[in-house]
Structure formats: C-alpha cells, structure tokens
Design a protein that fits this description.
The protein has helices spanning 26-38, 58-72, 87-100, 117-129, 141-144, 150-156, 172-185, 198-204, 218-230, 233-248, 257-265, 282-294; strands at residues 9-10, 44-46, 78-81, 104-108, 135-139, 162-167, 189-192, 208-209. With 300 residues, the chain is an alpha/beta fold. It has one domain (4-232): Alpha-Beta Barrel (TIM Barrel), CATH 3.20.20.
C-alpha cells in the first residue's frame, strides 16, 4: 500500500497495448512499463484515460492491473484506475485492484450522467469506504462534464483514505485553489494532470504530475520535476517548454491515439487504439515524427 510520503513525482497514465481483438497485449504492456521505469518515473497509473479504461471490459481491466502490479514488482507504486459511470462499478474495480496488489486507486468523476455535489460526495465516499487503499481523485471536467469544485474537494479531502487529487483542467486557478485547500487540510496532495502546467503547479506547491506525455518522454517530464525539487527553476522551465510541442501533438488525432502513435513510431509496437478511434493521417504522422525527432526520441 502507498505511503503518504511516496505520493509524489511523475506518474504516467500508461497506454494499454491491445491486440487485433482489442484484448490487452501482455508483452506490449510490459514494454511500456519498462520504458517509463527506465525513464525514472515515480509511479505507474494503469487504466487511466490514456489507458482507454472505458474501452476495456472487466476481464481486460483486471488483466491490465494484474500484469502491471506483477511486472512493476514493487519498484514504484502502482495506481489502478477504478473509474466507471456507477458507484457500484467503481467499487467493484477498487476492490479488485486491492485484491490484485495495487498500491492505490484513482477514481474519475462519472461520465455521461450529471450528479449534483451531494451525489458526487456520496459517490466518492462510498468508493473510499469500500477499500483500504489510498484514493487519488481524478478531475477531468472537459472529458466527463462533471467538475470537483473547490468546496467539494475540501469536504472530500477530510475522508481518511482520500489522499490527493489529479486535476486535468485548463483552469489553472482551480489547481491553485486545490493546492491551497491541501495546505489547509493537511495530509492531502495535488497533482497536475494538464501537461502544459507541470512547472507552474510544482512552483505553487503541487506534489507532482500525472502526465500523458510521460508515456513518450518520461525522462524529460522527470527532469522538470527533479530540477524543480533541486531548485533549478530555470532548467525546469526550459524543459517544460521543450515538452509543449509533444503536448500540442495531442491535437493531431482523436484522443487518446497520439501517445500510441508516438510509441509505435518509436518502435515499441503497441498496437491500435480501441475503435472507433483510428490512426492519425499520414500528414499528421509526419508532424508527430518531427516532434519526436526534435526530442531525440526517434531511433536512428
């Protein structure tokens, strides 16, 4: 189980390699895990949005968690996504993740439906009470249309095993509000989920980032974090600017295909995205290659 002091750093929401039948590709998943660990990341998050949790049935979700836990083998904490539309669905995943040996769970706000704040509170409280694992909340209002307000977060942060939040929002003021609440409540940490803001979030007192780009450029993202921790703010800012073209590349295809396209172009052989998401156009693949070349990530 995750120790509070180990809740920090760069945690990539790893992509989930799949085969032609859209089942988890075990060897591909192990390659991705090895690649990000070699890049120095501080945790691994399986079944996030980049991991296409929504496109995998329960057996494949279970398989992805099991492979990740076993292959990481205690080298860094494993965060398992326990996200579904219903409270019951999230509890099933949370308890499965605990049985399989995950160190923590990450829970996204529900999608498609529109719960009010009391319903959202009850949802997260029930999930937290269903497991002994630490819970990292996941706010991504652009994708789910549900937002964890600062006032709701303040209440949720007081639940014993809800230990932090990942904020994937273009509203940076909200991240600042979250960090302020974390300082006031204590024993609660805030992670940046928007890769444009990693450097800024760290300077405000964020604990780290859950960065999709760390699938592709783990060492660069880790450098932003580690340079900030050492006080090399100029170096960290320069690395943040280096990362921006890769984050901009998300726009070259339908989410979340671009990180998979990058890894395939780099020779990782991790397969397609879950349909209906398809490959980028040849024109956009050339643009992605240029970005990877600029970061020294294409094999010569």
């Amino acid at each position: 189980m995750l120790k509070f002091e180990d809740l920090k750093g760069v945690i990539p929401p790893i992509v989930t390699p799949i085969d032609e039948e859209e089942n988890v590709d075990e060897q591909g998943l192990k390659r991705v895990i090895d690649y990000v660990l070699d890049g120095g990341v501080h945790g691994v998050f399986v079944l996030g949005s980049n991991g296409e949790f929504y496109g995998l049935d329960f057996e494949n979700q279970k398989k992805a968690i099991e492979i990740t836990v076993n292959h990481v083998s205690g080298r860094v904490p494993v965060y398992a996504g326990a996200s579904a539309i219903t409270t019951k669905g999230c509890i099933k995943l949370a308890q499965t993740a605990e049985k399989l040996g995950a160190d923590a769970i990450t829970v996204l706000t529900p999608m498609f439906i529109k719960p009010n704040e009391k319903e959202l509170y009850n949802h997260f409280e029930a999930i937290a009470k269903s497991t002994n694992l630490p819970v990292l909340l996941y706010n991504n209002p652009d994708k789910t249309t549900n937002n964890i307000s600062a006032s709701l977060l303040e209440k949720l942060a007081k639940i014993d095993n809800i230990v932090g939040v990942k904020n994937t929002s273009m509203d940076f003021a909200q991240t600042i509000d979250y960090i302020k609440i974390a300082k006031e409540v204590g024993n609660f940490k805030v992670f940046c989920g928007t890769d444009y803001y990693i450097y800024a979030a760290l300077l405000y007192g964020g604990a780290g980032c859950v960065a999709g780009t760390a699938n592709v450029a783990p060492r660069l993202v880790v450098d932003i974090y580690e340079k900030c921790m050492k006080g090399d703010y100029q170096g960290a800012m320069e690395d943040q600017f280096k990362l921006i073209p890769l984050r901009n590349a998300y726009n070259y295809g339908s989410f979340p295909v671009v990180m998979k396209e990058c890894l395939n172009l780099m020779g990782m052989n991790i397969g397609n995205s879950v349909k209906p998401i398809d490959h980028c156009t040849d024109e956009k693949l050339l643009e992605i290659k240029k970005v990877l070349d600029s970061l020294g990530l294409m094999k010569k």
